[in-house]
Description:
single chain, 1 helix, about 5% helix, Immunoglobulin-like, mainly beta, 11-stranded mixed beta sheet
Amino acid sequence: MIARDLIVKSAIAALLTAAAAGFAAPPALAHTPYIVPVTFAPERDWVGVHGGMSEEAAFVPDFAIRGAGDWVVTGPDGVQTGATPTTLKSANLLDAALPTAGTYRISTGERPGRAGKAVKVGGVWRAVRPAPADGAPAGSPRPMEAEAVGGAGPINAADVPAGAEIIDIQGYLIAETYVSRGAPTPGALKALGKGLELEPATHPNEIYLDDGFSFRMLIDGKPASGLRFTVYRGGESYGGERTAIEGRTDVDGRATVSFTKPGVYMLEARYPGPPAPDAMPAARTWIYTLSFEVTP
Length: 296
């Protein structure tokens, strides 16, 4: 147990000090939330957790997860407790309390993210780029601005035609992880039936290299069928090869991921995904991530 914790702590320390680096396989991260513990098998009655928004490499923060409201720690008995992290400019830091033995789910909770508008121009939906504040320079195009509206390029607010159809879009983010003090238990794994969720079939603290990780994705408690996801491996900033495992859920929202190397991983899923150019964008979108450890 001690040796395993030292390996995990060394990996996390390397992630915190590594320069951001992209993955060879697409898609690249684009301001994706994450939280990850110092160890997934703590022996004390608390565990350190850090989080942030990654732009190029898993677990390397570009800036902190922002917004009002507590994070949530779900105990082995299923009871939820609020937890307030320290929010720096670059990252979030939290000492999560683990008063009893068992598995804990540590989550940012569902947090409002980017809000915006989309407009239908010439039969194609496009993101609306807000006008800059007085005296501020026009912002550079953001690669992810058009994702929620089918990939069409954004349009400046000043260029939106009069009378065009406009809708509001609200994004949400959820970043989660699980730790087990002592033997893993199932009480904290139950889905809540709200927003985008990952319901583990394999216990998140019992993911072994030979067995893989099985789970189900849910949206408001119902199967998220055909949902694309990507699994990134942390700690590869200095290597030539980058791990990005892509997959899709089946009709029941289920999927299994296989691994070739142990390590700390992050699963990322976005719902509902980019619509067709002629389809109305979803009014609500989600980004969900789960960090976990794969052991030999």
